[in-house]
C-alpha cells in the first residue's frame, strides 16, 4: 500500500515536470487617456509702428514793447504847438500847451497856492526873444490870461508873492527867455477842455509901448501826450 502511494507520487511529479507550462496572461496596459484638443493661440496682431508727433516749433515770446513816446499818461495831455508871432522885433513862440488833472501835475496838488478847487491845470510855455536894440519887458505879466472852454483866468492869483516869475523880468537885446505859466481851471476837467486861448500882454521899453498883445488860439482835439521838445530840455 505504501509502495503504491509512493509510485503514484513519483508519476505525478514526473507528469508535472514534463507538462508545458500555461502561458502567462499579459498584464493589460492602462486605458489611454487622450490629450485635450490643442487650442491655437490667437493670431498675433502687429503693433503699428509708433510715429513720434513732432512738438510744435517754439514761438519766441516777443519783448515787451517800450511805451510809445506819444502815449498819454493817465489824465494828462500835452502838445508841442510851436505857434509863433512877431511884432516890432519881439518874437513870442507858444511852444507847448499842457492840460492835466491837478493830482497829476508834477509837484502840484489841489492845496497848492491859488489852485484850491481847480478841476484841471493848464500850462502854456512861451519862448520869448528880444530882437530889438532895447531892453523890453511884459507890461503886466500878472495880466496874462488863459481861457479854457470860455472860462477865463489871469495869472496873478496863481503866482505866490514871494516868487519872482520869469515874465516879470526884463529881456536884454538879443536875449531869449523861457516862460512857463500855470493856471487852474475850476469849471472843466482836463478831458472836457476842447479849446484854449492865451493872451500875453504887450511889451514895453522905458514905459513906452513896443508891441500889442499876443493872442494864441489852440484847438484841443484828440490830443495825447507829447514829450518835451529838445528846445525845452
Features of the shown structure:
four-stranded antiparallel β-sheet; 233 residues; 1 helix; mainly beta; single chain; elongated
Structure description:
By secondary structure, the chain is mainly beta. It has 1 helix and 12 strands. Strands 1, 2, 3, 7 and 8 form a 5-stranded antiparallel beta sheet that branches. The termini are far apart.
Q: How are the SSEs ordered, and which strands pair?
A:
Layout: H1 2-18, E1 76-87, E2 90-100, E3 120-130, E4 137-138, E5 145-148, E6 151-154, E7 176-180, E8 183-185, E9 195-200, E10 203-205, E11 208-209, E12 214-219
Antiparallel strand pairs: 1-2, 2-3, 3-7, 3-8, 4-10, 5-6, 5-9, 9-12, 10-11
Specify Rg, calculated over alpha carbons: 59 Å
How can the largest sheet be summarized?
A: 5 strands, antiparallel
Order of helices and strands: HEEEEEEEEEEEE
Question: What are the segments in which pLDDT stays under 50 over at least 5 consecutive residues?
Answer: none
Number of strands: 12
Rounded mean pLDDT score: 81
Count of alpha/pi helices: 1
Strand % is 25-35%
> What is the first-to-last residue Cα distance?
172 Å
**Secondary-structure class:** mainly beta
Helix content: under 10%
Q: What is the 3D shape? A: elongated
Tell me briefly what this model is:
With 233 residues, the protein is mostly beta strands. It is 7% helix and 30% strand.
Amino acid at each position: 500500500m505504501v509502495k503504491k502511494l509512493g509510485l503514484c507520487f513519483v508519476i505525478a511529479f514526473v507528469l508535472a515536470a514534463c507538462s508545458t507550462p500555461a502561458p502567462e496572461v499579459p498584464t493589460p496596459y492602462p486605458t489611454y487617456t487622450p490629450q485635450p484638443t490643442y487650442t491655437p493661440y490667437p493670431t498675433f496682431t502687429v503693433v503699428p509702428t509708433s510715429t513720434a508727433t513732432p512738438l510744435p516749433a517754439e514761438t519766441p515770446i516777443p519783448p515787451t514793447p517800450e511805451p510809445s513816446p506819444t502815449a498819454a499818461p493817465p489824465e494828462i495831455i500835452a502838445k508841442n504847438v510851436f505857434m509863433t508871432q512877431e511884432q516890432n522885433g519881439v518874437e513870442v513862440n507858444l511852444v507847448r500847451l499842457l492840460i492835466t488833472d491837478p493830482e497829476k501835475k508834477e509837484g502840484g496838488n489841489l492845496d497848492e497856492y491859488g489852485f484850491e478847487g481847480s478841476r484841471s491845470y493848464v500850462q502854456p510855455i512861451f519862448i520869448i526873444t528880444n530882437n530889438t536894440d532895447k531892453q523890453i519887458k511884459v507890461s503886466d505879466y500878472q495880466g496874462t490870461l488863459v481861457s479854457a472852454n470860455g472860462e477865463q483866468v489871469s495869472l496873478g492869483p496863481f503866482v505866490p508873492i514871494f516868487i519872482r516869475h520869469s515874465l516879470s523880468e526884463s529881456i536884454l537885446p538879443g536875449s531869449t527867455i523861457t516862460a512857463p505859466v500855470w493856471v487852474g481851471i475850476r469849471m472843466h476837467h482836463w478831458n472836457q477842455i476842447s479849446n484854449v486861448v492865451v493872451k500875453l500882454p504887450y511889451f514895453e521899453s522905458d514905459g513906452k509901448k513896443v508891441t500889442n498883445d499876443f493872442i494864441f488860439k489852440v484847438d484841443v482835439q484828440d490830443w495825447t501826450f507829447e514829450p518835451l521838445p529838445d528846445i525845452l530840455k
